Protein: Corrinoid adenosyltransferase MMAB
Organism: Volvox africanus
Amino acid sequence: MKIYTRSGDTGQASLYNGERLYKDDAVFQALGDVDELNSALGVAMSFLTNKTLLEQLEAIQSRLIDVGSAVATPLPSSPEAKLQRTHFPGALHAQQLEAWIDAMDEQLPPLKNFILPSGGRGSSALHHARSVCRRAERSVVVLSRRQTISLEVNVYLNRLSDYLFTAARHTAMSDGVPEVVYKKSS
């Protein structure tokens, strides 16, 4: 199978259900943002050494492929078999993220101030991934408001940004790099 198909040369692409839409459709915006998040995680992982965190992030990358599948299969226009295949149990996966957040949070000092994205390369890359995650979340909110995707996708991405914030703080602490505290202008 060749990597190129030429089917998108006219500015349209197919969803999993076979529906063709223009590439500037909100569905493709959301898919692109989720894909960019997955890439940002890959970059962040290249700066990390914590085996547990790397295993968690690899699992998250796979869940993001699942998120993309759910986004690419609109609820109102997809056959039931395709909906079942791409169903994303976001609340269940959010619980796993919460457990990982709680485990890291137990080791962190309490957060008393706003912090700037900082804490070394690994931490900063995770902060960047968190920002991309927030954008992906905003993109899927458009689709869930239209009721074309399950709200569970939103739940997962919302919790994922919390996870990435906590992972960034934990990485800074583990690497011995201080976080930079926000200072209000005078």
In short: The chain has six helices and four strands. The chain has a mean pLDDT of 95. The radius of gyration is 18 Å. The longest helix spans residues 121-145.
